[in-house]
Specification:
Blueprint: E1 3-9, E2 16-22, E3 25-32, E4 38-46, E5 61-71, E6 77-89, E7 92-105, H1 107-110, E8 117-120, H2 137-141, E9 149-153, E10 160-164, E11 173-180, E12 189-192, E13 194-197, E14 200-202, E15 206-210, E16 217-219, H3 221-228, E17 235-237, E18 242-246, E19 254-258, E20 261-265, E21 271-274, E22 279-282, E23 284-286, E24 293-295, H4 297-300, E25 303-308, E26 313-318
Parallel strand pairs: 3-8, 4-7, 15-24, 16-23
Antiparallel strand pairs: 1-2, 1-10, 2-3, 2-6, 4-8, 5-6, 6-7, 9-10, 9-25, 11-26, 12-15, 13-14, 13-19, 16-24, 17-18, 18-22, 19-20, 21-22, 25-26
The protein binds 4-(dimethylamino)benzohydrazide.
4-(dimethylamino)benzohydrazide binds next to strand 3 and helix 1.
Length: 319
């Protein structure tokens, strides 16, 4: 089998939401290659106002004694209990998917009414269900896929897709360049050989994770400094949350070299949003608080990205 589900960017391309059939309900989930839990609101979730919620199908079962509790890099969290139910994404069906029902969610979730939960697409080793760790949707359907891969096609301010089971050459230009993935921490980790700000090449390798669930491109402070050195007037202002600059400033492109392929994020994609101060908040920000680099949506929305589990590799091509 194979299938494609449309994703829709939320304001500022902050997250990409996909309608998913979970049990007897349709919910809008934030697909997240940086985590491994599929969780949804229920009719009784504290903080569930304004969200669609999960209704178990007739064939659903409660996974007795199983609970989950997750924390994300931005400090948000959620927890609850677990059902086994049918989940359908773009026509691809997981018949015995662990559906994690939220009893509690932190305020950044409850206030974010654009999603009704998350669908994790990292490696299943990050799944938080206890005492029996559960598999991601991708892991559950992988053996049924015509080609056991999925692709993320995120766009700037336009619908894209998550494709399961096939590579679509109409969705990228040139060739796909593959590079080994580092799954030792459960993420889709990878290394770039160098980076370029405008026309200035820095021959320093960077490692990080491909994370559709993180909005920004989070890089070490040296790399951030080298980028904003080419943005006139940019300052790193902790009171505004990081690197800001006058919104009239033009931004240089940021590109990375991966196994001979140059992945370019155009400067026009590198402003995240306008602050109340009239300053603009950059899409490239410091990864220091996280401890590793995160190639989030700001980066991914310039690329066609293949996530290949069996070969433990990532593929990149320009959109
Ligand atoms: C609050 N929300 C919607 C979040 C969604 C995703 C994440 C995340 O770190 N994913 N890798 C954090 C927070």
């Amino acid at each position: 089998v194979s299938g494609s589900a449309t994703n829709t960017p939320q304001p500022a391309d902050s997250e990409y939401i996909v309608p998913v059939t979970v049990g007897a309900s349709t919910v809008n989930l934030d697909f997240d290659t940086g985590s491994a839990d599929l969780w949804v609101y229920t009719s009784s979730t504290a903080g569930g106002a304004g969200h669609n919620y999960y209704t178990p199908s007739d064939g659903a079962t409660v996974m007795n004694g199983e609970t989950w509790s997750i924390g994300y890099g931005d400090g948000s969290s959620a927890s609850g209990n677990v059902y086994q139910d049918t989940v359908v994404v773009g026509g691809v069906t997981a018949t015995a998917q662990a559906v994690e029902a939220a009893q509690t969610v932190s305020s950044s979730f409850s206030s974010d009414t654009s999603n009704d939960g998350l669908l994790g697409l990292s490696w299943s080793s990050l799944n938080t269900v206890s005492p029996d760790q559960q598999k991601t949707f991708y892991d559950n359907v992988q053996s049924s896929l015509a080609d056991p891969v999925f692709a993320a096609i995120l766009k700037h301010d336009a619908p894209g897709s998550y494709d399961f089971g096939f590579i679509d050459s109409s969705k990228y230009t040139g060739n796909i360049t593959y590079t080994p993935a580092d799954n030792s921490q459960g993420y889709w980790g990878f290394t770039v050989d160098s980076y370029t700000v405008g026309t200035t090449v820095t021959s320093t390798a960077l490692s990080g994770i491909a994370d559709t669930g993180t909005s920004l491109l989070l890089l070490d402070d040296t790399t951030c400094g080298n980028y904003y050195a080419q943005v006139s007037g940019a300052i790193n202002d902790s009171s505004q949350g990081g690197w800001v600059y006058d919104c009239s400033t033009s931004l240089p492109d940021f590109s990375v070299s991966i196994n001979g392929y140059t992945a370019t994020v155009p400067g026009s994609y590198l402003t995240y949003d306008q602050q109340s101060s009239g300053q603009c908040y950059g899409g490239i920000q410091s990864s220091t608080a996280i401890g590793f680099n995160i190639f989030g949506d700001v980066f991914l929305k310039s690329q066609y990205v293949v996530f290949d589990g069996p070969n433990v590799q990532l593929g990149f091509a320009s959109q």
